[in-house]
Amino acid sequence: xxxxxxxxxxxxxxxxxxxxxWRHPDAVAETDMDFxxxxxxxxxxxxxxxxxxxxxxxxxxxxxxxLKAGDMTRTRLSRIVxxxxxxxxxAMAVGTSHIGLVATATTTFNEPYNIARRFSTIDHxxxxxxxxxxxxxxxxxxxxxxxxxxxxxxxARYERAIEFYEVVAGLWDSWEADAFLRDKDSxxxxxxxxxxxxxxHGKHFHVRGPLNVSRTPQGRPVVAQAGSSEPxxxxxxxxxDVVFTAQTELEAxxxxxxxxxxxxxxxxxxxxxxxxxxGITPVIGRTMEEAQEKYDQLQALLPDDVALAALARFTRGxxxxxxxxxxxxxxxxxxNSAKSRQKLIMDMAKKNNMTLxxxxxxxSAAQGHRVLVGTPEYIADELQEWLEKDAADGFNVICNYxxxxxxxxxxxxxxELQRRGIFRTAYEGRTLRENLGLxxxxxxxxxxxxxxxxx
Amino acid sequence: xxxxxxxxxxxxxxxxxxxxxWRHPDAVAETDMDFxxxxxxxxxxxxxxxxxxxxxxxxxxxxxxxLKAGDMTRTRLSRIVxxxxxxxxxAMAVGTSHIGLVATATTTFNEPYNIARRFSTIDHxxxxxxxxxxxxxxxxxxxxxxxxxxxxxxxARYERAIEFYEVVAGLWDSWEADAFLRDKDSxxxxxxxxxxxxxxHGKHFHVRGPLNVSRTPQGRPVVAQAGSSEPxxxxxxxxxDVVFTAQTELEAxxxxxxxxxxxxxxxxxxxxxxxxxxGITPVIGRTMEEAQEKYDQLQALLPDDVALAALARFTRGxxxxxxxxxxxxxxxxxxNSAKSRQKLIMDMAKKNNMTLxxxxxxxSAAQGHRVLVGTPEYIADELQEWLEKDAADGFNVICNYxxxxxxxxxxxxxxELQRRGIFRTAYEGRTLRENLGLxxxxxxxxxxxxxxxxx
Lengths: 455, 455
Description:
With 455 residues, chain A is α/β, with parallel strands linked by helices. Chain A is built from 16 helices and 13 strands. Helices cover 40% and strands 13% of the residues of chain A. Chain A has an eight-stranded parallel barrel, surrounded by seven helices. Chain A has a two-stranded antiparallel sheet with strand order 5-6. In chain A, α10 crosses α12 (356-366) and α13 (376-388) crosses α14 (404-419). The first copy, chain A, starts with 6 loop residues before the first strand and ends with a helix. Chains A, B: Keywords: Flavoprotein, FMN, Monooxygenase, Oxidoreductase. Chains A, B: This is Monooxygenase.
């Protein structure tokens, strides 16, 4: 019997997910704005058979409110500028041929027609390898760039996101696969019976359609989702092909996995229709001791005040700087953004009885994701355990800096996973759906016509 | 003395600008949705030293209101779907190295932060070859995809466009060129004195900034503009590096050229700061007779009712189908969109005493642009005359179908222009600004600092 296979995403967190990673002697600090590096990393990921390249996104300089208030610590936080993800996907499509290309785009500050069109186009350019990570905007800085004084309320953002998804998915069905005849003899360009107006009239959107892009090579782009709050889980169960999540504990991860998959049935979906992929940050050594030394070396590059500034992104509502560094982590008021990440941080702090500084340094190192410090065998053991215990379908690999940790995971851990028979040795197909083992969704109108014909 | 050099744009109007062009036996009708063709055409354009690839854009299926009303003639109009232009630019940047990459994006249904970011990113990906064609949306179909029942008023669209440009240009100055230090020793990532908040508070937009993309390789993307109405000309004089326009008559083109350039001074700009490029559609034969036969062959592929449906896009407010085909072109009520194109059509009809059908067939053939039917020498004569008589700085080459007419112009007319010494034989530089002969704009804050230091 074939073993369950794990999926791997390369999470491109340039110049590094660890906030001091770029200061490492091996780090290329310029990876944030140099597309040549983005492409080399994508090609490396494809060479090592990752399922996807994945881009997070923020439509603001994170921490700019604090900068505006004069907090100079922020000038030492590295993730300030980067390239816009959808443009990167399109460009990467040309330099790669198999890997999936997934980017985040917010439902809070975009229009669904524009998003449906752009991702659909990238699916055409890449011959069916595109994915859209549907999010609601998480930080207050973003609102200020889009005509708002304060951030949109969490519940309202999710309400808009659900309707946004319905519009995008509807627009993706505007044209049936065989709608375009391009018949030179008759002069008929398309079959009007296979063109469909959406005529959506909802609370947030009025969108007539049709989309001005034809049906894509994999039916429609893959949809990923990254929210882990209650409405986030519900939206994922309803809409997502892939779920990215931050999980640090096996039991909590198993609970999340079962909960999200358990919600799919009421939307007419199966457990296999959704792939759950927690993030992991590997720190790899030939021995456990060498790995720990590497991690300690990184942490030594991180000043305490920078760590605290990084934590402050998740602690709105209290002045984190006014608490004693070596005292307990203070309680936080209920958040309007990044709710689930905030809860994860508090749970970690309480469970491990951590000081404020310890929490800050941990968040700066991994942004709430699981850090795996050890040998390739140890890391493979951990991934295999989570896979076999139904805590994950795969993992998003997040690197502390580039390119060395990414090379290490690719050349040391992936071969170990392959030896164990839990990771591919060649791509299964050419489209992202084929490689992830996802069904090609049928156009709703084609399905209706088929159902009618069968009657 | 070196002769004045003309600029050439390749206007990618897939599957063909002539509405029946795709029916020609030589035409590849699938060029509209096949990115492989987009890339081949871009590479061909670069091989023949064009300044730019240029994409028009519409955020709707044009004519979908008529389709919704049951007008089946529209199923024979070919320009229904195509790939989203900015994704295409990003992808083309990877397969080319010198040609400029220019795409249209509307100010009516986008947010300035998103546009500033995307074009700035493509400028990074292409190492300084990107341009943004700033337009206001032209057709009613677009409004229906963006929450509106009727199209935004012409004056209001221009008012928004002007403010949109100010925000985008402001965001492009968020970071001075040397803002990022990435200093591993000190741990300082950027120089806060070289980061700037925009803090824009206007009628249409409130945008704080800064943009989360650093200054681009050519300072900022080139800005093109395509409106020719009164507010369109004013906006162009104020904002545009390049102006695309439809001009069919030498005298009118000279008037437009002098008028737009004449308006630049009050914005502190010079005549050379703006390049004016009318569209031309070439039909090339070895003899004048052969060229005319080719044109007649294309026109024979165009049914009268399809021609009329094409004209109907420009005749809102009257039922064009109720007028006699062979009677005079009826007068039109004042338009809310494509104002200058509509005026061009009416002027042409009156000047040449054309019937409704003749006007419809002419519009279907060239969408109001100038058709040049003749030998390579004849076409070169015409281009040279317009260049020397200050009617144009260059031309946007628009093809009836692909790829043959594009190959013909590239291999027959361009060498003739080169023999005459009015077109380059090698690219002057690597960035679009270098090739167009445009200055690199200085960051406003860098300029202020320099001015202060000089005092």
